Amino acid sequence: MSTSDSSIKGKFNEVVGNVKQGIGEAVGNDRLANEGAAEQVKGHAQQAWGSVKESVSDAADAGHARAEEAKHDARDSATSTAADAKRRVEDSVRN
């Protein structure tokens, strides 16, 4: 599973927001503290969206792998059946 751009941007916004909030609270600047809190919320939302995208991508990859395995199994079954039929015909011809 790879980390999506949304998750990375979200973590960045969360950290920046946390710093802004801390500075704003330290110097008594409510506007800066509120901006920081809002940026943290934005960061959390971006990270959540990144997690959703990663989960969907992982599920699609797993589905693709299962489909490829099913196609492989079908080809093996078809060739095995054909080989069995060939052996039976050859056995019938010999007998």
List keywords for this structure.
rod-shaped, 95 residues, 0% strand, mainly alpha
Structure overview:
By secondary structure, the chain is mostly helical. 93% of the residues lie in helices and 0% in strands. It has 2 helices and no strands. Helix 1 (5-27) runs antiparallel to helix 2 (30-94). The mean pLDDT is 86.
Number of helices: 2
- Sheet-strand content, in percent, reads under 5%
What's the N-to-C terminus distance?
A: 59 Å
Low-confidence stretches: none
| Rounded average pLDDT | 86
Structural class: mainly alpha
The whole-angstrom Rg is 29 Å
Count every beta strand, where a strand is a DSSP E run of 2 or more residues.
0
Protein topology:
Elements: H1 5-27, H2 30-94
Helix pairs in contact: 1-2
Question: What is the compact description of this entry?
Answer:
With 95 residues, the protein is mostly helical.
